[in-house]
Structure formats: C-alpha cells, structure tokens
Design brief:
little secondary structure, disordered N terminus, single chain
C-alpha cells in the first residue's frame, strides 16, 4: 500500500523500480537474509536475465534489516553474517556473468549450468577458494586464461558447450579431480594434461579427437576415462601403464584393434563397441584379471581366443553383432558370467554345456 501511495504521490523512484523489475525478476529479501546466515544462495530456475547487483554485494552492503530494526534478537544479528561460499545460478537466462563475481572471494562452489553464457569473466581467476565450477550446458566458445589460476579447483564441468580448444596451460589446475569436457568441438588435448596427476575422472566423450597424447599416461590417479564417440583410430600404447584405471570407454570410434593393457590390473570395465575391431588377441586379454564387463558389440570380430577364460571375474560379455561363427569350449569355465550377448553373429551351434 505504501508503495502505491508513493507512486501516486509521484515518488521519483517508482517508475525506475518498475522498469528494473520488468527487466529481471527480483530476488526476495528473505532469500538474501537466509544466505547471510548459511553462506549459501540458490537462485536456480528464477528466470533471471542478469544477476542483481545486491547479490554480488551481499557481503559488502549493510543489510536492510539493519536500518529497520534496532532491537535485535539473537537470531537477527546481521553483523554476524557468513561470507557466501556457495552460489547456484543454474537454469536461468544469463547471457553473461559480471566481473563483480570477484566481490565474492569466499566462494567454493559456483554453479551456472544451463544458461546462455557465451563467455566467462576474467575475474573468475580471483576466486582463489573455488573448488567446484559448473558452467556446463552454455554456449562458451573459449575459456579465459585467468581460470587457470584456480589452484584449489577440484571439479570443472564444461560439457555441452562450443569449445574448439582448451588453453595450453590447462595443466596448471593441479588440484583437479574431475574434468568433463564432453559434447564440445575439441580436436586435440593440450599436452599439459600430463600435469593433472590428481585427476580421477576425465570425460572426453563426443568431441572430434583423432588421437590422445601419450602424456595422458602420466595421470597416475585416473580411474575413469571416457573417450566415447570420437575419431580415434588407435590408443597410445602408454595408456597401458595407467595402473589406477578402472573404467575405460572407447565406444563409437574407429579402432581396428583393442589396446593391450598389461599394467591395468584394476581395470573392471572395458567398453569398445561400435568400432572396426577385427581381431581379438590373447595379448589383449591375458592381463585383465579384474575385468567384470567386456563390451565389444557392433565390431567385425571373427573369433574369440581360448584365453578369454583367464578373465575369471567376467560378469558381462557383449559380443553382439560381430562375425563370430564359433565360440571356444572353455567359455563355460567363466563361473561368474551372468550376461552373454551373442545375437547378430553367424554362430552355427552353441554347445549345451556352455549354455549351462
């Protein structure tokens, strides 16, 4: 009512307020108050076209309640506010992020996925406490060099953007444990990736990679590597030395043979379907003692070597849509096998004892 009276009385700010409100929905003061106490502010899915200035200045400006209420209860001590550590701006209509993001130096998590961002502010490099940055599902064409200053960053999610290259100095992000650059337009990987020795999960799927740098083998902590849907014709032999690798996805590439992985003693899953693999060698299999999933569907494999029985932990074997006419009798010795896919092969007979 008071606002309406002011508008009728010709309050000079009334028209300005309306215009600002139409441009971008306001952030309720109650949310801001709660964020001062918790250090977390979730503004996901609010139709924001830009981030209101008072969000960037949440730790700097004196709160409104300080002017209104002079008899504080214990719960309303605004001067005991917590610095903002987590800011979620996902699923809005943001086209850019202000350089004012630097006014939130305590941020450990910044989530702006699912917006319309075409670039990132260089000021992100000043958020030295940042541990997780999610800028996936935007329209980013490049990454600012300043981002490489984030020495504490553990998770960087860049999937579903329009990146055609990554900065050469990418290896400076030495604390990274998870990196997702899937569904971009990358044609190569910087050799400095070798410095990411703490990386546990690397997703390179759905890009335009023709090869992987041999240096990738220096990632001694890597447990999961996803190279699905690229243009790989070979895998560097150095990959064989990655002792921590547990899951390797090579589906939908142009591989003609399976890589030999003698040191990958912990490898549990190997997915290499939809390639052009013709021969399955004993050498490909004999070291993979921990393998529980072997997926080779939609290739051109003609035979399965007897050494398949060395994979005593195998639970799922998918050989569908190949050119296999007979199976080794020893396949029946795989005691853990729960799933066997053979459809789409010119098999003449399957022995009854094998089925049992």
């Amino acid at each position: 009512m008071a606002a309406a009276r002011r508008a009728r009385a010709g309050d000079p700010r009334a028209g300005f307020r309306r215009a600002a409100d139409e441009q971008s929905p306001a952030v309720p003061q109650g949310l801001i108050r709660a964020a001062r106490k918790s250090g977390q502010l979730n503004l996901a899915g609010r139709g924001l076209g830009e981030v209101p200035q008072h969000v960037w200045r949440i730790n700097l400006d004196t709160p409104e309640e300080a002017h209104q209420n002079l008899s504080f209860g214990a719960a309303d001590r605004w001067w005991e506010q917590t610095d903002l550590t987590k800011l979620i701006l996902a699923s809005n209509q943001l086209r850019c992020l202000s350089e004012d993001v630097r006014l939130l130096p305590a941020l450990t998590v910044l989530d702006v996925h699912d917006n319309q961002l075409t670039s990132l502010p260089s000021a992100l490099g000043q958020l030295e406490n940042l541990q997780k940055l999610d800028v996936s599902h935007n329209k980013l064409k490049s990454i600012p060099e300043e981002l490489l200053q984030l020495s504490h960053l553990k998770g960087l999610l860049l999937q579903h953007n329009e990146l055609s290259h990554l900065p050469d100095g990418f290896g400076q992000l030495v604390s990274l444990e998870e990196l997702d650059v899937s569904n971009n337009h990358l044609t190569d990987i910087p050799t400095s990736f070798a410095l990411l020795v703490n990386l546990v999960r690397l997703n390179l799927a759905c890009n335009q990679l023709k090869d992987l740098p041999a240096d990738i083998s220096a990632m001694k902590s890597l447990r999961q590597l996803d190279c699905t849907k690229n243009y790989l014709e070979t895998v560097p032999s150095e990959l064989a030395s990655m002792a921590s690798l547990e899951q390797l996805y090579l589906r939908k590439n142009k591989l003609r043979s399976l890589p030999e992985l003698p040191s990958c003693k912990l490898l549990k899953e190997l997915h290499a379907g939809e390639n052009q693999i013709e021969i399955l060698n004993a050498e490909n299999l004999k070291h993979l003692n921990s393998l529980s999933v072997l997926e080779l569907r939609d290739n051109k494999i003609k035979s399965v070597p007897d050494e398949i029985t060395l994979l005593q932990k195998l639970e799922r074997l998918d050989l569908a849509n190949n050119d296999i006419s007979r199976l080794p009798y020893t396949l029946g010795n795989l005691s853990q096998l729960k799933f066997l896919a053979l459809e789409g092969n010119p098999l003449r007979t399957i022995r009854r004892d094998l089925l049992q």
